[in-house]
Amino acid sequence: MQTKPVVMEKFHIVHTSFVVDLSFTNNITILMGYSGVGKTAVFSFIQECMSIDKRILCINFIDYQKNIGEILKQTSGKLIVIDDADVLLDSDARKHISLDEKNQYLIIGRNPADLFATKDNLFELVSTSVEEHTVFTIKPYL
Amino acid sequence: MLTIYKNKKDIPSDKEYVELNDLYFNMNTSSLLDERAKSIIEAIDRSEQISKFKIRSRFNGDVLNIDKLSSGCKTVLNVLYNPEKVFCLKECGENALDVLFGFEKGAVYSDYPIIPFDFEKVAVFSDGEIKEIDDYEELKEWWSNAD
Known about the structure:
Chain A has helices at residues 39-49, 68-73, 85-88, 91-99, and strands at 10-15, 18-23, 28-32, 56-59, 79-82, 104-108, 122-130, 133-140. By secondary structure, chain A is of the alpha/beta class. In chain A, a hairpin with a 2-residue loop joins strand 1 and strand 2 (18-23). Chain A starts with 9 loop residues before the first strand and ends with a strand. Chain B is an alpha/beta fold. Chain B has 5 helices and 9 strands.
């Protein structure tokens, strides 16, 4: 498994009063945790960036009818952000991700099965109020 | 009490299975919400429901459409307002599970164990048999065993 991020170590974006400030230490980051902490909101802010940053590909339940595994195999050089991952990723797609050295992944879900993940892959979202902004960062889950 | 399925083949043919909780909530459940939703939205998403289709964000107080609820909260509301259907459990965080596993009726499906630390009793269904379980380890064992 590729351990160091192959596309980016930092991701930063401002969306009105929200700031997303992510530091990646691993090529696969699995974002877990409670419901309602803002994971899908962060996904939508990153998704917005697809229009200006070619290195980003976002996948969520809108892509339910597509062959996700095939999309992953045909993609190179991107940070692939997958929301609703526990529903969208089958075992084959998960195994592909675990061995993929061409892309980096931010996976929003709670099931690390078949990703050959260790605690170094598991993170949770942290939100902090800074004056009029809400800043989202990630920290190790365990 | 909540009924749990671990095999899709066990879901009775007259019960609809819903995998995409977000979509089902936006298209169906949202129009069914009443006073019962308020406390659930508060407990799981820490957001205030200010009208049928509006919530106040926990982060900055913005008024948002109710489609911005978390997938876990939407799953719980789907089960509450549609107890005759079976909903995918996989997008529920621990806080959503705490609420869901206390329901008096409703049904969920997952092919792997997703269990809150505290629950009183659930009904599990596999191979045509239903039984009640009130112990974490027993439920985990049932869920982990392939039938």
